[in-house]
Amino acid sequence: MKTKGRILVTGCSGLVGTHVVKKLLEKNYSVHGMDLAPMRENINDDRFLFSSADLREGDDLSDAFNSMKYDGVINAFGIKGSPIRAKEKPLDFLEPSIKVNTNIIENCNKHNCWLVFMSSVGVYEPAEEFVEDTVWKTLPSPNDWFPSWSKRIPELYLEAHKVQHGYDRWTIVRPANIFGEYDNFGEGATVIGATCRKVYDATDEIEAWGDGTPTRDFIYAGDVADGCIDCFEKELHITTNLGSGEEISIKRMIETVAKVSGKDIKINWDTSKPNGDMRRRMSTKIQEQYGLLPKLGFEEGIKETYNYYEKNR
């Protein structure tokens, strides 16, 4: 059966990229994945081609665009790291992100190819609600300073291509705090990955910081992948958040991980430790308008994530 088209997925081995590849294959696309890291899963499918490539090198990417004739690109490339790493080694974020993303954007413009660019919640200044059109009126948090600009600059580069070349075949998506099966559960893990590991290792109790009342916007990686694919298929020339549509307390998050583990875990709250910001949520008005709200949701996503860790720890 003829495929629906050929899609390039950059960052195909990552937390979101792996989901994008699998979902595109389910939809009968031909998929070319490019990443430095090997795939997290063995995908035995004639419609999938993996290339190990350093996308900072423009020639490899240009050759791929010239030979493959892509119908679209979903750019899930990103640099993950702790706030300490971002502060001490800022070039680890800026150098690859700016080089890779400008290479991708230039090739998409040259070949008039639809691009879904995955930005980040980190582009926003600290706020209780993140609204899309506020970004360029503000400055990012000092704690996210370098990672934020590693995503803001490619967003600006896309806008510059629109102004100078009339290239507007792109979507910018800004996901909330992403979690899922292919996350980092070890050193430097984000809160859900670390909680899965902590609950798995526990016998009867765990310690948690603060009192559990702060809320965050968590979104499952598979739902981010669905949103990216929908933006490509609908050719949505928009900038949109990809959030969960609900505020989830730290208490609910930890209790949900404990629940799906099947363990009877007591949670000891250390209120001498800081809570952090009390509220962070994404505005989902644009998502709702274009039918981009999550399909699986938080609890089912936690279940998939914990079960994956349990099997692959």
In brief:
By secondary structure, the chain is of the alpha/beta class.
Notes on the structure:
By secondary structure, this protein is α/β, with parallel strands linked by helices. It is built from 10 helices and 15 strands. The protein has a 7-stranded parallel β-sheet, with helices on both faces. Strands 6-15 form a two-stranded parallel ribbon. The chain has a two-stranded parallel sheet with strand order 8-11. Helix 2 (58-68) packs parallel to helix 4 and helix 8 packs across helix 10 (298-312).
What shape does the CA trace take? globular
The secondary structure category is: alpha/beta
The count of helical stretches stands at 10
- Number of DSSP E strands: 15
Uncertain segments are none
Largest sheet strand order: 3-2-1-4-5-7-12
The biggest sheet, with number of strands, parallel, antiparallel or mixed sense and barrel status, is: 7 strands, parallel
Average per-residue pLDDT, rounded, comes to: 93
* Radius of gyration of CA atoms, rounded to a whole number: 19 Å
Order of helices and strands: EHEEHEHHEEHEEHEEEHEEHEEHH
Q: What is the helix fraction of residues, given as a range?
A: 40-55%
| End-to-end CA span | 38 Å
